Amino acid sequence: MILIPQPKKAERRDGEFTIGYGSYLVLDESCGPLLTKQAMLFLDALEEETGYRPALTRGKGRDGDIILRREEALGPEDVLGQGYTLEIRPEGIILTGGEKGLWHGMQTILQMAGQQGAVLPAMSIHDRPDIRNRGFYHDVTRGRVPKLDWLKKLADRMARYKLNQMQLYIEHTFLFRDFSEIWRDDTPLTAEDILELDRYCHDRGIELVPSLSTFGHLYKILGSKHYSHLCELEGSESMPFSLRGRMHHHTINVSSPESLEFIKGKIREFAALFSSCQFNICADETFDLGKGRSSGLKESLGIHRLYINYVKDLCECVISCGKRPMFWGDVIAGEPELLKELPADTICLNWGYAKNQREDETRALDAAGAVQYLCPGVCGWNHLIPLYENAYCNIKIMCDYARKYEAVGVLNTDWGDFLHINHPEFSIPGMIYGAACSWNVQPPAWEEMNRQISILEYDDSTGQLVGMLAKTQELHGFTWEMAVRFKELKTGAAPEYDADHRQYLQEHMESMEGVDEKNRRLEEITGELYGLLPHMDRRSRKMVKKYVIAVEGIGLFNELGKVITKWDYGAEYDVMPDTWTLSERLEVWLYHYKELYRSVSRESELGRIQEIIVWYGDYLRERR
């Protein structure tokens, strides 16, 4: 029996219990409106697994029933109030816990029913999480704006694995009032979308926390004619667009009172849509701070004083909205003692994405008295398939730090960077790594974790799917980021980054070593993926095509890399692709990629991805 996250204590007993079509789900009288709603959601999901739906009632249960008993105090070990006990006996099921614990216990029953159907083995489970807040952070700005239906499905998957917090990263992809110049050419989320998603998440035990970029990373806002005068660097409205440039410029001018009032207005408008008691102001990677219009203040106050004064003002604005402020901790980690100047209980989001992420920043922030979340990543950005091994190692070690330094939460991140090329559904294994590692101090080892996810999430009876996909990590030759940088270098998109692009490309050319063998292995993986179809539930088979498209894309970019490194860097290969044939294959692949993209995302910046692929089609035809 596979259960993710792994319960603290689970004992198999003699016998089994059958959830019959005449069984009842019985709520005790202390179960309020939220638990009643969640019981209905549970029954909807149970019907998907068994083909029928037990009746719902309130009162005292009988033999053959599933009984929910609300008890807020399950003992001194359940300090977070999210624990539950689950007793499955031949005569029925008794699930006991507080409001949050009962919801978690329902997910355990659903995971069991997904594997066993209506006949569940007798068991005694005592379970509780290690960390109070276990979240997932999804970038909905730099490339993709997901469809609302997909965000709801994401919330469903999060709930199934007992995650309880979601954040969406937004710079400009929300339809603010009086903001038409910013979203006129985009497909932004609306206030109605947020209100609906907030309610949907709440019903599923998930806190939807507002997250809004308020300091750096404001390229589209500060590059507009209307708001460019608020940018730290002058002339931002005439800066040439580049994917590299939008990641580094467009920091707001903190020396202007108008800047502060403008951002406060956006915070107030956005905060009003959320039932959450928290608000993430981001405030990370302020690369241009003090280099332009605020340089005078920098000389008199210093860069860190400039930073903390502005962040403090924003935190106070958040508090005035009735919410607890959060912010990314990369800048403050350089002067952690300044944390004492922020309002009490401000949460520092301490991120780091290395496979063997160092402990230094976490230790320093803890010594300064920071209230921390540890924030690892699913390692999907700039790759068609995430780097699953890197993600597992990074997430596990960051969750270990969270326990060691008594962090109040873990927020597992899924960034978009250069247009969010990876299909969002491919981040689900990384999301599950985060759920498993933040719940239990000792999750399964990586290979076993992949086997369990393959079976439980993808209905792959062989248990091979995720491990098979993880092999692609070593098979990237010419990556998406290399493709973006090479195009920007060749087209002169942003000359100030030419030297940076050259250095990056030179440093990463070694990934092209053994590229023909890499592509041979990618072809093998494609065959293995198709071979999994008879071993997968029909509901999950659609994932195979999605992954095959991604695997094919990795191989096509590897072939593209051969042409580029031969023509522009003098590399030699035994076999070269026909460039016209490769251009056609790449363009046919783009057609299928766009179809996949549109299945879960609004149009957003798909056109920029298409522009890059089309440019490479022309590049290849010119080199025949």
From TrEMBL:
<keyword id="KW-0378">Hydrolase</keyword>
<dbReference type="InterPro" id="IPR025705">
    <property type="entry name" value="Beta_hexosaminidase_sua/sub"/>
</dbReference>
<dbReference type="GO" id="GO:0016020">
    <property type="term" value="C:membrane"/>
</dbReference>
<dbReference type="Pfam" id="PF02838">
    <property type="entry name" value="Glyco_hydro_20b"/>
</dbReference>
<comment type="similarity">
    <text>Belongs to the glycosyl hydrolase 20 family.</text>
</comment>
<dbReference type="Pfam" id="PF00728">
    <property type="entry name" value="Glyco_hydro_20"/>
</dbReference>
<dbReference type="InterPro" id="IPR015882">
    <property type="entry name" value="HEX_bac_N"/>
</dbReference>
<dbReference type="GO" id="GO:0005975">
    <property type="term" value="P:carbohydrate metabolic process"/>
</dbReference>
<dbReference type="InterPro" id="IPR029018">
    <property type="entry name" value="Hex-like_dom2"/>
</dbReference>
<feature type="domain" description="Beta-hexosaminidase bacterial type N-terminal">
    <location>
        <begin position="3"/>
        <end position="127"/>
    </location>
</feature>
<protein>
    <recommendedName>
        <fullName>beta-N-acetylhexosaminidase</fullName>
        <ecNumber>3.2.1.52</ecNumber>
    </recommendedName>
</protein>
<keyword id="KW-0326">Glycosidase</keyword>
<dbReference type="GO" id="GO:0004563">
    <property type="term" value="F:beta-N-acetylhexosaminidase activity"/>
</dbReference>
<dbReference type="InterPro" id="IPR015883">
    <property type="entry name" value="Glyco_hydro_20_cat"/>
</dbReference>
<feature type="active site" description="Proton donor">
    <location>
        <position position="285"/>
    </location>
</feature>
<dbReference type="InterPro" id="IPR017853">
    <property type="entry name" value="GH"/>
</dbReference>
<dbReference type="GO" id="GO:0030203">
    <property type="term" value="P:glycosaminoglycan metabolic process"/>
</dbReference>
<feature type="domain" description="Glycoside hydrolase family 20 catalytic">
    <location>
        <begin position="134"/>
        <end position="376"/>
    </location>
</feature>
